[in-house]
Amino acid sequence: MQIELINTGSELLLGRVLNTHQQWIGKKLADAGYILSSQVTVPDTAESICDAVQKALGRADLVITTGGLGPTSDDITREKISAQFNKPLQKNEAIVEHITSFFAQRKRPMPESVLVQALVPEGALVFQNKYGTAPGLAMSIPSERSNIGNSQPWLVMLPGPPRELRPMVETYLLPFIQQQFPLKEEFHCRTLRSTGIGESMVEDLLLENLRPLMEQGLDLGFCARTGQVDIRLCGYGPEILQKIAKAESLIRSEIGKYIYGTDDDSIEKSVVDRLIAKAQTIAVAESCTGGFLGHHITSIPGASKVFLGGFLTYSNKLKEKVLGVESGTLGKYGAVSKEVSIEMAEGARLKSEADHALSITGIAGPEGGTEDKPVGTVWLGLSSIGRKPIAIRKFHPYDRGTFKQATVNQALELIRRRLFQDK
Amino acid sequence: MQIELINTGSELLLGRVLNTHQQWIGKKLADAGYILSSQVTVPDTAESICDAVQKALGRADLVITTGGLGPTSDDITREKISAQFNKPLQKNEAIVEHITSFFAQRKRPMPESVLVQALVPEGALVFQNKYGTAPGLAMSIPSERSNIGNSQPWLVMLPGPPRELRPMVETYLLPFIQQQFPLKEEFHCRTLRSTGIGESMVEDLLLENLRPLMEQGLDLGFCARTGQVDIRLCGYGPEILQKIAKAESLIRSEIGKYIYGTDDDSIEKSVVDRLIAKAQTIAVAESCTGGFLGHHITSIPGASKVFLGGFLTYSNKLKEKVLGVESGTLGKYGAVSKEVSIEMAEGARLKSEADHALSITGIAGPEGGTEDKPVGTVWLGLSSIGRKPIAIRKFHPYDRGTFKQATVNQALELIRRRLFQDK
After folding, report:
1. Do A30 and A78 fall into the same domain?
2. Which B residues, 339 through 368, put their C-beta within 8 Å of a C-beta on chain A?
3. B54 and B173 fall within a common domain
């Protein structure tokens, strides 16, 4: 089955907005066994949109567009597609009512222009928009297709804003696809997520062992991001679950200690869940990462059960005053040192009365480096009740964003290993 | 001039990675007057990559590919393109040396497989990779092009990892484009960035006033993201700078108070720069955002001059112990209240001895809401030395990520307005 995604929006090509739809939709579909064949971004011009849709309908079973359904002057998808396929727009009273009450509930004045969103091409199915005003639209369209059977392809138009599009995909689009295009064979997919090991090394260690399973139809993929490598196992057929299980067991026997979770897990989720299970608590003391570690932990729903709080001690003065770091330690070793990272972790744990505390102190750059401690140097500390504190030194000579991300990953991994090693 | 971007990588279509290249490259090119005509993502198969490149070369003057140049088995772009255009791969000794010393410097063992990255198609230009091992490659390729003149299009292949690709675009690709495809007319672009006003409202207020300038060739674009709207003014020609200036002045007279900056400014950058200029300092007290506000402020290089630190007081106990919030206030009004937000801001300012302190306390959800204070409710406080503290209530009934982003934007905007209103 061929599925093509068309993201419309000149602001995407001008680089004014990040295209998060591609990843989000791609993942949702792939997890259900439907894999995007290609994705294209085109500007908000009638010619570009119509041309892209026409070409895609000539190849694919399902074409999904995003964007261009709103009320402003560059939102032209609905109108142009309706004209192109000769499906006149008709006012839908249920949508008019939804839009009107949407504005009324928010006590905002309703510009007349927003009612354009209640127009529906003749014969189109409507996907309700609970979080906004423009509904999604699905149309079955005759097409001359060279490489596919007789069935007509579907064109589905989704609104651009992620918080409107995402619930719509989950509530309406996925069930629609599963009904219109049932999978011919069972499909399963499992991702093992690792950190602390490079992509080449992962591949070197695994590829030969997994080849026999791949020859039996297991699809294996590696995907690297800052400090992490995902290993994706999936495939179709009645025995695929056993093949995936066999592959997982082979992988865990080779690189098990680097694997922190599966599928949608994140290191922070694995840490928060484990803390909840152990009824333990955590605090953080951050310097150069400025709250990014706390942000990661608190991005997990339920974090309030285990995260007591944190101390962003950017200045040396606050390191002393709030965390009780000794001025002698700061003077002798400098703020970026093993000794200070340990005193920060100990101080944060005592102050918050948490079971564990992580600390981070480093030089994010671009300024502040020295010969001994160049930009990118960072010390991570961990203090746990009843244990000797530990600290590790890392070096991430990259831009500020990458530095922060790599450092926070490692801090989370430090506590994760402790939580899973301890009984 | 037609420029097409081809992002290769099955992990993009499977939704395992976010395509940040599209935005980053699109913006860099557009800021220099070169606008992407389209972007496409294709899987890592020889057929898909070669087919996409061939089609793009038939339409465009410049085709840029990303990814597929690394050492692992799914990195096939270099090899397949070299075969497709009959440009045999030749070992480049300078690159061999670069790769060897890259591993030696990092004291990492060098797998033999990485030397495949030293192979260069015959006649290709090499863009050095200072931050990784795979160089970029540029090739001029004969093509049957229907709609363009006689010159041969260029194909440029860039490596996938952002920290390798980005410096390469700035150092090599942009100068290369400017030399190969000089702009025929002067080009300028200016973006005004606003917050606190919706996209429809911005358009309603501006469109009619700006129409005469648009008829004279000024290109106007709006772009909305969480809580923000960008207004982009650009165009070509000898008088474009005057037209942009005239438009900017019209816009500022209509919605000036919502405009926090221009071009690459962010609210946090505008806050940090203003604090530096005023030689003032800031601290934060965060509950539900868990460090996301501190992260935003410290993402700006130079933040250490003005950001003293922060207090992530997730638990009520820490709110009392660290910030001095009265237990009576917590008992009477609850943690999510005007009173507590003010005591948090005051406490953070006094404790850190900063000139200003921002506080955030709210209910990010999905749990913890009540009838009076549903999920999404948040109070923001601001305390400045010698001023009466203020607090505002906001409501963001969205997912946790959107809640955090919208809340942090508003906290930053709260201090920005104070910094720019005060003399």
Report:
1. yes
2. 351-353, 364-368
3. yes
